[in-house]
Design brief:
The protein contains twelve helices and 15 strands. The chain is α+β, with helices and mostly antiparallel strands. The protein folds into three domains: 75 residues, no CATH class; 94 residues, no CATH class; 224 residues, no CATH class.
Length: 416
């Protein structure tokens, strides 16, 4: 079985939103109480509590303290599970030692088995504004209206998580257990066509078929406004009302950048998955590239390009459709000649055209690299594209005439 998350935007009344914030603060206090009890247990008996002991302690604290009784019983147990897993990651060397949480850092509640009910699924609006909505009831909190942008296998839901983002937006995530058998059978089929993708800063993606996608650089375009809000935040008193208000504005700005980037990545993946059965990517060491960045601007642009997230999005889209993603070595992919396979050691970052000193082969640097990646995967393209061309101006892809973001997408990133 594989676990898949279905995330939907949720809307609710101001009263229910206040109740949710109150319960998040109470859950944070319960988490800190469990942390304190764990520290006392270790000081006295030199042992740590098991998951069952932590769950029982959470239920006992809930019975003894009226403040904790606003939480659903299974939500209280899940707080114990969260602390237990945080402690286990520390023991395994995967995370820092669990420490006391602040109320503005605890942002989600989980209903593992019961305490929730989804009903009144309906279609509203007409034409382009047509949407599917549903009504979700969470025990001890209230009702939420969900925008159901895709089908949800309700009978396979194992957990429901309600999350309050730092920007104030609410999302509900359904964790669904799905079998992997069908996708494994689909992915076992022999792919008929393949494409190699070279990632870069100037051009975010260069395809082996000659098409390319310019890097919209959403963070760099909104960096001036982010810095202004950050300076305003630094002048506020910590955890004051004005500090929280400015913190929310800053979180909204970062969420705009994140949403723009992920939307572009998923739509690019959808376009490639429609046309190709095999996607060949370069196995980049993103952290190493950032550390080797010579200038601060280059390091920032590497962060902004988010190659790791792009790879995850493309892999998710292809695997969802039962298609294959193959990562090959990126070592010397830009310096290797696609035609003869020899290395041009004199090629620098400033050289945007690849010229082989041995066979005389000349081609765009990024296009040559994408063809080399495809060749390393065992595929030989039918021909070498004569010139580069931008991706088509598909409105659904959010791209403009030259492969950059269209104007209607920009306000979410650039608006002041």
């Amino acid at each position: 079985m594989r676990v898949r998350a279905y995330r939907f935007r949720a809307y609710t009344s101001k009263t229910t939103a206040r109740v949710l914030k109150t319960q998040l603060e109470v859950a944070c206090k319960l988490y800190n109480a469990l942390l304190h009890a764990e520290q006392e247990e270790y000081e006295k008996n030199k042992r740590t509590m098991s998951m069952n002991e932590l769950r029982q302690l959470a239920l006992d604290l809930r019975k003894q303290n009226p403040e904790f009784q606003v939480l659903h019983s299974q939500v209280a147990q899940q707080v114990a599970d969260r602390f237990y897993h945080a402690r286990q990651r520390f023991f395994e060397g995967l995370a820092n030692k669990p420490k006391k949480k602040k109320p503005h850092q605890y942002l989600s509640l989980v209903y593992p088995q019961s305490g929730w009910k989804l009903s009144n699924t309906r279609e509203v609006g007409q034409g382009k504004n047509k949407k599917r909505k549903a009504r979700l009831r969470l025990s001890k909190i209230g009702f939420f209206t969900l925008v159901m942008h895709r089908e949800l296998p309700l009978e396979q839901v194992s957990q429901v998580c309600v999350k309050l983002n730092p920007s104030g937006r609410i999302h509900v995530i359904f964790l669904v257990e799905e079998p992997e058998a069908e996708e494994e059978q689909q992915s076992s089929k022999e792919p008929k066509n393949a494409v190699g993708v070279d990632l870069g800063i100037t051009r975010l993606a260069t395809l082996s078929d000659g098409r390319f996608l310019e890097n919209p650089k959403p963070l760099e375009r909104s960096l001036e406004r982010i810095r202004t809000i950050q300076r305003m935040l630094s002048r506020k008193k910590f955890l004051s009302k004005n500090w929280l208000k400015t913190k929310r504005r800053l979180a909204k700005r970062h969420e705009h950048v994140k949403d723009f980037r992920r939307d572009l990545f998923f739509k690019l993946g959808a376009l490639l998955a429609q046309e190709y059965d095999l996607l060949v990517l370069e196995d980049l060491d993103t952290e190493g590239l950032i550390q080797k960045g010579e200038t601060r601007t280059r390091r920032m642009r590497l962060y902004d390009s988010s190659f790791s997230e792009l790879r995850r999005c493309l892999e998710w889209v292809f695997q969802k459709q039962g298609k294959t993603v193959l990562a090959v070595s990126a070592y010397n992919s830009s310096r290797e000649c696609f035609l003869c396979g020899r290395i041009n050691q004199n090629l620098s970052l400033e050289d945007r055209v690849f010229h082989c000193p041995y066979c005389g082969f000349t081609l765009d640097r990024d296009l040559n690299a994408s063809l080399v990646l495809l060749k390393r995967a065992g595929w030989v393209p039918p021909g070498v594209p004569a010139e580069l061309r931008p991706l088509p101006p598909l409105p659904s892809l959010g791209l403009g005439r030259h492969g950059v973001a269209m104007k209607q997408e920009a306000p979410s990133v650039r608006a002041g």
